[in-house]
Amino acid sequence: MTPTFYKKYLVELNMIDFFCSSKDNTCTVMLPCELAFFNKMNKVLSLYSKYY
């Protein structure tokens, strides 16, 4: 899964605030438990893809 997927998914859920710079087109994720959440998402998605 690409970071873009996570960005779109999380932004839609309003779980993350992005501070985007139009200068270099990069976004900074503002979320303390970001890594833990992404790891959990990876597990969920890998399980999902196994069975569906």
Account of the 3D structure:
The mean pLDDT is 61. 54% of the residues lie in helices and 19% in strands. The chain is elongated and about 40 Å long. The protein has helices at 3-12, 34-51, and strands at 17-21, 26-30. With 52 residues, the protein is α+β, with helices and mostly antiparallel strands. A two-stranded antiparallel ribbon has the order 1-2. The protein starts with a helix and ends with a helix.
Look at the structure and give the mean pLDDT: 61
Oligomeric state, counting identical vs distinct chains = single chain
Poorly predicted regions are none
Distance between the termini: 16 Å
**Tally the helices: what do you get?**
2
What structural class is derived from the secondary structure elements?
Answer: alpha+beta
Alpha-carbon Rg, integer? 13 Å
Q: What is the general shape? A: elongated
The number of strands is: 2
* Relative helix content: 40-55%
List the helices and strands and how they pair.
Layout: H1 3-12, E1 17-21, E2 26-30, H2 34-51
State the main characteristics:
two-stranded antiparallel ribbon, 52 residues, elongated, 19% strand, alpha+beta, 2 helices
Brief account:
This protein has 52 residues and is an alpha+beta fold. It contains two helices and two strands; from the N terminus they run αββα.
